[in-house]
Amino acid sequence: MKRSLMIVSLAACTFLLSAQAAAQDWVSAQPLYGTHTLNTGFMPDPQSVTVVAGGAETPQTLGAPENCTGMITAAQPAVRINYTAGSFPLSFFVNSTVDTTLVVNAADGSWHCNDDANGLNPMVRFDAPSSGQYDIWVGVWGSGSTAPANLVISELNPTPLECGTNAQALAGDPGATHFVVCPGACTSNAVWGTGIYSDDSSVCTAAVHAGVTNGQLGGVVAVTIAPGQPGYTPSLANGVTSRAWGAWSRSFTVAPTGLAVQTGATALECNTTAGSLAGDPGATHRVTCPANCTTGSVWGTSIYSDDSSICRAAIHAGVINQATGGELTVTIAPGQPEYASSTANGITTSTWGSWSRSFTVAP
Description:
Elements (H helix, E strand, L loop, with lengths): L1 H22 L11 E5 L7 E8 L24 E6 L5 E7 L3 E6 L5 E5 L7 E4 L5 E9 L5 E9 L4 E2 L16 E6 L10 E2 L1 E3 L4 H7 L9 E11 L6 E2 L2 E2 L6 E8 L1 H4 L5 E2 L16 E6 L10 E2 L1 E3 L4 H7 L9 E11 L6 E2 L2 E2 L6 E8 L1
Parallel strand pairs: 1-3, 10-11, 18-19
Antiparallel strand pairs: 2-9, 3-8, 4-7, 4-9, 5-6, 5-8, 11-14, 12-13, 13-17, 14-17, 15-16, 19-22, 20-21, 21-25, 22-25, 23-24
């Protein structure tokens, strides 16, 4: 009897060790879609890897906890990230046309899983990430099927939006920029304007209209708050028809995040105009102005024609002090039908009619 119990115990132990070994096979396996090395501050941000989501196994095959859902290909991670951390958060999320799930084994060996953080797309965020190896699986909910997907890696800490979320949900005065992530299939919500949109417009549908995101997959968007406009022009683009409207008090522009993130500040002279700064509406530049900028013409109020002095516009807007100068963010904006004059902070700007390109300033 004792001999039989010993045999059973040995068999059970062998089974447990085999299961544990099987669960750890992925540690040394070659990822299906590559190993990527990223250091904090990586550019462009976000990074995207095209994968096939789904498989025939559950995450528990890996040793992941019961709250990890979806069906995955367990034998190999989809993607491996060797990451050197800094002071930024680190986010992994998926864009796909199907209901996907995300399973991440972090640098410290802990498991992190998500389903439906952004519509049917998952997101896993590390507020204080560790340096090391991150293994990632992309699953499909509830079946053994597979589907194409994009795995996105970002330090921008983007805010997930729904298709119907408008820019009134995003705080800030003109020049404030928000990084957001849009789900796919945001093509049917209301949008007013072209290039610059009224803030009651759907952010994600505006991003599709502007060609910033794919209508099917969605993606990360830089949203910059802009001043209200005297009118908004309709147009048809990328399968979205925007509408016309008259005067509105607050606007926004959308841009790919690669245009919105700059490294370091560019030193300007007092007379440097925004015509010297590259980019379409939504592009931002970090610049620094010298002290005592007493010369340079400016046209407009809050939104300025791009032949205006950047530094003088920044003083007029109260973003920097004339005596000290300083750093600021310049956001390229669409041309305006007219530019109003005003006096503020010791500077009187001029009036002008229609101009093809504009800019705003912010701290």
